[in-house]
Amino acid sequence: MKNMYIQDFHGMGEDVNVILLGWVKGKRQHGNVAFLDIVDSTGLIQVMADKTKVGAEAFEIFKKANYEAAVEIAGVLARRNGKMEIHAKSIKVIGDAVKQFSPRPRSDFDIFDPSMADHLLRNRHAYIRNPKIMAILRFRHILMSCMRDWFNRNGFIEINAPILTPVPLYEDGSAIGVKIHDEDIFLTQCVGYYLEAAVHAFEKVYNMGPSFRGEESRSKRHLMEYWHIKAEMAFGNREDIMNLVENIISYLTSKCQESSQEILDTIGVEMCPDGLKTPYSRISYEDAVSYLQKEGFDINYGKSLGSKEEEALSRIYDGPFWVVGIPRCIEPFPYCVDQSDDRVTMVADLIASNGYGELLGVAEKISDYGMSIPENTILLSGKLFGKIFNKI
User: Which domains are assigned to the chain?
Assistant: First the structure.
């Protein structure tokens, strides 16, 4: 089993015998001397092979090693121009890489170039090795770890809900259906129903898992497949939930800043600190519509805010902001009606700064049958719950 990694070699002294296990990233030859750049999950190190010392057979293997071949190299640590390298004694190809890709998976190219998207997605098994893609996945790992840490610190229980469900949470048109044992089943759009059941047992619950929507998969607002963080809390109103979310975003921003500088340097971006600017500003939906109309947008009361409208609103603020007081025709059942304005429900959308659009939505939900339910959603809710009861 591998017990030494490239990051360990850089902290060791010279003339130490080591065994290196990794993959070929780059190679060069100058007469009877050849060089391999070997990488593993922790970094890169240069390996030098002298034909007069390793022998003709090993040297031939060394110089012909394919990009991405997995190799085992025995050698001794040495220092060249202030950097540690390995002088090879022997080499063994553990797994060859016959198929080659262009650009090479670990090479420095723009992974965000739209013209590269299809190629990268078709060959994602190879390009996951790219340092920038690795950095993005490392950041995702850090963020999800911090998210779980916050939930654990604040008494939330993780609930693992099924991916296959008999009922779509949203409209049928965006649900992805599959047929299993002659029964129509859907890929989950949201785990809301399961968390709403679990909250009556645990009071504070959350889920982090995949969600699916049968929509354009590369839009700014939606992906066909994405990971969804969902939480439910008993005995809390909208204000409590908004404060909770601000605490979460601030915590994530702070923790990710502490842990991710090397990752950010690799990707070539900076961490946005705006999440730390709590409490976040608020604007009512009605005021937002008035502002947008003055800015020349074709929008009336009762129409949802789109990406362009959210981007325009973000210019008003220097951080994330809430849109509150959203009309019942946009955000109806199962959300509570605002007792101070029966045109709207007790929901709020959090919009990111710098034009990146909606981050999330929160809502205070109806808790008993006596609460007011918007008339124009009775048929919708009846249809929805009819489906649930038919499947039980």
Answer: 6-95 (2.40.50.140), 280-374 (no CATH)
pTM check: above 0.85: yes
* Burial bucket for residue 387 (CB in 10 Å: 0-12, 13-18, 19+): middle
Burial class (CB in 10 A: 0-12, 13-18, 19+), 105: buried
Q: Distance between CA atoms of 234 and 241, rounded to whole angstroms?
A: 10
- The pLDDT tens digits for 140-160 are 999 999 999 999 999 999 999
Q: How far apart are CA 69 and CA 86, in angstroms?
A: 18
Q: What share of the chain is helix, strand, coil (3-state, %, to 5)?
A: 35, 30, 35
Tell me the residue type at 370.
G
CB neighbour list of residue 270: distance below 8 Å, 6 or more residues apart: 264
pLDDT digits (tens, 9 = 90+) for 74-94: 999 999 988 999 999 999 999
